[in-house]
Design goal:
- By secondary structure, the chain is α+β, with helices and mostly antiparallel strands.
- The protein has 3 helices and 3 strands; from the N terminus they run H-E-E-E-H-H.
- Strand 2 and strand 3 form a beta hairpin.
- It starts with a helix and ends in an 8-residue tail after the last helix.
């Protein structure tokens, strides 16, 4: 075998080892998240004309929502409604679902009136 072939094999082995290390670190990070060590906190806050909510993960702001999503920057009408919306979003984050609010969610918390 030539030196070039040996060098190429060493490079390939180095790349495989590096990829394995990266995968190991990613898997460890995943296990840390899944193991329940993530602290999730919700807060409501007053804004001009209404209320909004904030969701933080491990002390860092993850979602800052000062208004009802999809409603031309209108805030939630009261603290209770903002809290209900935050709980829906938090529940989805805990299950790994998309954190958006659907029209049905907005009906359930009283933002949209149901058509009968």
């Amino acid at each position: 075998m030539t030196n070039t072939t040996n060098w190429t094999r060493k490079k390939i082995m180095l790349y495989i080892a590096a990829a394995g290390l990266v995968l190991l670190l990613l898997f460890g990070s995943y296990l840390h998240t899944v193991s329940g060590k993530v602290r999730m906190k919700t807060e409501t806050f007053e804004v001009s004309g209404g209320w909004g909510y904030l969701i933080s993960l491990n002390g860092r702001t993850y979602i800052y929502q000062p208004f009802i999503p999809g409603y031309d920057k209108h805030p939630f009408p009261d603290r209770k409604t903002a809290r209900k919306a935050a709980r829906i979003v938090t529940g989805r984050l805990k299950t790994g679902s998309a954190p958006g609010l659907s029209e049905e969610d907005l009906q359930r918390i009283g933002i949209i009136k149901k058509d009968r």
